[in-house]
Amino acid sequence: MSEAILLVGGKGTRLRPLTTFTPKPLLRVAGVPFLTHQLARAAAAGVTRVVLATSYLAELFEQEYGDGAQLGLELVYVTEAEPLGTGGAIRNAARHLRSGPGEPVLVFNGDILSGLDIAALREGHRASGAEVSLHLTRVPDPRAFGLVPTDAHGRVEAFLEKPETPEEIITDQINAGCYVFTRSVIDAIPAGREVSVERETFPGLLRSGGFLRGVVDESYWLDLGTPAAFVKGSADLVRGLIDSPALPGAVGEAIVLPGAQVDEQARLSGGTVVCEGAVVERGAVVEASVVLPGARIGPDALVHRSVVGRQASVGGGCVVREAVVGDTAQVGPYNELPPGVRIACGVQLPAQAVRVSAPVAA
Ligand code: GTP
Predict the structure, then answer these.
(1) Confidence tier at 109 by pLDDT (50, 70, 90)
(2) Residue 149 burial by Cβ neighbours in a 10 Å radius (0-12, 13-18, 19+)
(3) Residue 201: which residues within 8 A CB-CB, separation 6 or more?
(4) For 40-74, how does the pLDDT look when each residue is reduced to its tens digit (9 = 90+)?
(5) Residue 110 CB less than 6 A away from ligand 1
(6) 232 has catalytic annotation
(7) 223 CB near ligand 1 (under 6 Å)
């Protein structure tokens, strides 16, 4: 038996309005809930039992996966009445673990897409005698992240808050959101209150002389927490830049799920996914985008690096770039949305007058 805890209770505020009715881990990425990719990868790495630590929109997880048999996993659900933070959630989930005190337990953030060799992290942990092994990744610009320097033997030296000055950037290694804990270390996290592993548990272990092992892995890594990252992750999966056993179609420029209708005169590219019940009409161009179930893209519309929510519609002739259109929102024909805009769920934007191209200045 090999066990894992998956943290899926966050509110996903940075992805609003996509997360208004769907928790971030259940949003469709490359056509299936993001969590399905993670669970399939965990199963492929030999994980047999997963405790899902839920809070926000908790009931939707069991509705989606039931007992997990379809994924070849045993799934157990635990819900926090009030979110307990990452450490509190891990501690709360531990009540449902079966591993013995000395056994390794994997812990995953529910929003990280990565090509990490999960089995190697777990087996390396067993051999190392560390209390916790942490997956670290290198990023070109670490300013937005907490830094995790390690010594020549991979021993974590510190957990540093987001650097504010160039001098504080002493490493490009950041916490990648996947850990192996020795079970007894989880049981030592205080129960019944909010705890952050990043800010409290790990620094506390270091202060008391604990051995935290950092494993730098440079395979694909992406935190899907923002709309831009979300569309990139989906497009990268569709184009095969990162493998997933759960991809619902062949790798290529686009995946169209059964039950979607795409006109022969429409063009899909850049790793676009069109989910079931969605319609893409004649002349529409959809690039590197996520078209969620039941959405409609009108004739000659251009949709670029955007997410179109469930049952939402983008009218004919619209230009939608790097935007999020919330569930059931309706963007009337000929709207040109400012890049980066987010349309709240259910909003109706009236049609615009047909645009006539301005003459090009001589
Ligand atoms: P933002 O609100 O956009 O920051 O997203 P988030 O709520 O998902 O927070 P964050 O990205 O920091 O969370 C990292 C992972 O931990 C995600 O998989 C969350 O689902 C999960 N998580 C965060 N806080 C909690 C919590 O209090 N309880 C549980 N069970 N999971 C949590």
Answers:
(1) very high
(2) middle
(3) 87, 189, 195
(4) 999 999 999 999 999 999 999 999 999 999 999 99
(5) yes
(6) no
(7) no
Residue range 204-260, pLDDT digits in tens: 999 999 999 999 998 999 999 999 999 999 999 999 999 999 999 999 999 999 999
Residues 166-184 as b/e (b if ≥16 CB within 10 A, e otherwise) read eeeeebbbbbbbbbbbbbe
Mutate to test the pocket of ligand 1, among 91, 92, 111 (most ligand atoms within 8 A of CB): 111
Residue of minimum CA distance from atom 7 in ligand 1: 10
- Interstrand relation of 272-274 and 290-291 (parallel, antiparallel or unpaired): parallel
| Neighbouring-strand partners of residue 78 | 53
Q: Which stretch of 167-176, 178-187, 314-323, 332-341 has the lowest confidence by average pLDDT? A: 167-176
Atom 29 (ligand 1) nearest CA: 9
Question: What gap in Å lies between CA 322 and CA 318, rounded to an integer?
Answer: 13
Model confidence at 362: pLDDT above 50: no
Q: Atom 23 of ligand 1 has which residue's CA nearest to it?
A: 10
Q: What pTM was estimated for this model as a whole?
A: 0.92
Separation of alpha carbons 116 and 215, rounded Å: 10
Structural domains of the chain, ranges and CATH numbers in brackets:
3-223 (3.90.550.10), 253-349 (2.160.10.10)
For residue 358, the model assigns a pLDDT of 54
Q: What count of Cα atoms within 13 Å lies in the side-chain half-sphere of residue 16?
A: 6
Ligand 1 pocket, 14 CB below 6 A? yes
Burial tier of 103 (Cβ tally within 10 Å: 0-12, 13-18, 19+): middle
